Amino acid sequence: MSLELTPSSFLRIGQLSNVDLNEDIHELETEVPRQRPNEIPHNEKLLSLKYESLDYDNSENQLFLEEERRINHAAFRTVEIKRWVICAMIGILTGLVACFIDIVVENLAGLKYRVVKDNIDKFTAKGGLSFSLLLWATLNASVVMVGSLIVAFIEPVAAGSGIPQIKCYLNGVKIPHVVRLKTLVIKVCGVILSVVGGLAVGKEGPMIHSGSVIAAGISQGRSTSLKRDFKIFEYFRRDTEKRDFVSAGAAAGVSAAFGAPVGGVLFSLEEGASFWNQFLTWRIFFASMISTFTLNSVLSVYHGNAWDLSSPGLINFGRFDSEKMGYTIQEIPIFIFMGVVGGILGALFNALNYWLTMFRIRYIHRPCLQVVEAMLVAAVTATVGFVMIYCSRDCQPIQGSSVAYPLQLFCADGEYNSMATAFFNTPEKSVVNLFHDPPGSYNPMTLGMFTLMYFFLACWTYGLTVSAGVFIPSLLIGAAWGRLFGISLSYLTRGSIWADPGKYALMGAAAQLGGIVRMTLSLTVIMMEATGNVTYGFPIMLVLMTAKIVGDYFVEGLYDMHIQLQSVPFLHWEAPVTSHSLTAREVMSTPVTCLRRIERVGTVVDILSDTSSNHNGFPVVESNPDTTQVAGLRGLILRSQLIVLLKHKVFVERANRSLVQRRLKLKDFRDAYPRFPPIQSIHVSQDERECMIDLSEFMNPSPYTVPQEASLPRVFKLFRALGLRHLVVVDNRNEVVGMVTRKDLARYRLGKEGLEELSLAQT
């Protein structure tokens, strides 16, 4: 294959199909107001072009190899020590952030519930409870309004739990703003306001996102948001290193939330990290351990138990007495049945939330409408709670009860309304009450009504423009119907000692959460660590596996579903099973813009300024000046590298090619990472456009390539396993014929009727 060259031209090979668009690399240091469309069309069979890829493959150019060769054993030891220090700092800061969230939520929620309780007690005797309802709904809506405003107008990526976004980041997708300092601040403030506002949410899920942001910031030794560079940890300023630390941050977040360091490691492995190794496991476990210890120490001091270390996580499920609450062989079918129920209810939850999210994408995409919806949900949640408390006549004796805010309402003196305990508490405390309150504490009708209403409230709430998680609401729903199941079983077996409602509340909680998020291994360990009981390990495993199998039969897990709804080019572990008929030639992107090893500066500027293609990777080829023919592939260079070369004027005059162009160091590229300036901000004079630039020193001379006859599964395996951003397709003469990018692989998936191809769109 030969192409005619002119001195001012650059090479395009093939026909236009689709290209890998760049977004964040062009981002200016000053934020540009984001335009929001009047109407957002959505099709679940679309793949968005707005998402850019991260590069988890180091560019082994001459600069990189020279630096690596200079690293002796002592320097290598220093780098390893720095990695452990960073992991310790991640654990400490994540634990402190979790402490801050817990203390603020406890005080603000306590203040709100005291005000509402005193008001209800006051008006119960006098009449006029409608004012109490108005006060409760107004307080909730006002607090949630602030939480939704800061998310919708300042940092929309802080909405939700952040787990789908971090999962995508670790998979290699660049989600704009996902690990920014501003995102962390909005996330922390938003989750506090969401929980205090009485929404059916939890503060544990967002801790995973918070830990990831902390890890991304600490590992770089600087803050691009604050424009502060501490000149430390410069070696780790690349996507590969940053990814590993973000994995540690996610694990530290789980560890702080549940007091489960082993569960945190397994969560990062099962749900988060797409790339793993043994050394990374040790460092992640270390970060998780430090996170739990920090949280435990600070909260123990705060609660006046400085030496007890009695607060291992944001939520402590309390200890189950395994001697009194063991399980027998005849309960195994019961646990399997509960897993089936959890899987069905989880699938129903996900299906309802899917259609609700589709509705939001189409009609509630304006920030002002998103805030109004959040306020509406907060007011409805308060109204539902008030009506259920008002209608309930389930009175229980206060003596011996551990209820924080006992509400008498229409109960006799010395009694409290048990329905109020579910709504006059943060969801975390309600879960613990359902686990450990003695038999007889709840009326079956009360639990049934609460389960039904809270199920729909939690489903409606997930996806609002607020910072919130789904872990605790799922556990609360499951604990409620699980306890109801236990009460029914106790009644049928005439009070058998093994039919303890608290035990079945635990199994129901695991079944419901497993049915929604489809986690098995990590959730088993999290539940075991959070309860401090290994006895129920096997029943929990059984329940979770059953819930996952049943749920997967109907719909995907909640996180995978939302990744799909956002049209993210997410790469699963394996290519679609029916894709062997496709080859690299059929899936690759064309045309490919190639550069010559010694290229004219003006040509480089024109290529980078070409908004019609916006390529990020450019194969470097060698041209023969005698025949004007293109020789084979010589290397690969990235847009970000070319930007740095132009910024530092690394070129020589055309008439003086014998001159040595200016030398750059890897530090120059690391200083520009990750927000490389846009090409529009770099001034190149007309004289400089005629200069030449030698790419030999900066290009990757050994990029990964595949022949055009390679099957899609083989291409997918190479691309996915190595964390590539670009994979060059060559013919039998080593000439470039195309480029495989993430979107080329992600657009093929297994549908209901076999292999289907998604459309690409700038959504």
Report, as a whole number of angstroms, the end-to-end distance.
Answer: 37 Å
How many structural domains?
A: 3
- Look at the structure and give the mean pLDDT: 85
Helix content: 40-55%
Low-confidence stretches: 1-41
Specify the structural class.
alpha+beta
The outline comes out as: elongated
Q: What's the arrangement of strands in the largest beta sheet?
A: 1-9-11-12
CATH class of the largest domain: Alpha Beta
CATH architecture of the largest domain: Roll
Biggest sheet, open or closed, and with what strands and sense?
Answer: 4 strands, mixed
* SS summary, helix count: 26
The CATH superfamily label of the largest domain reads CBS-domain
Q: Say how many strands there are.
A: 19
Strand content: 5-15%
Radius of gyration, Cα only, in angstroms?
29 Å
The third-level CATH topology of the largest domain is CBS-domain
GO molecular function, one term: chloride channel activity
Main location: membrane
Keywords: CBS domain, Chloride, Ion transport, Membrane, Repeat, Transmembrane, Transmembrane helix, Transport
Subcellular location: Membrane
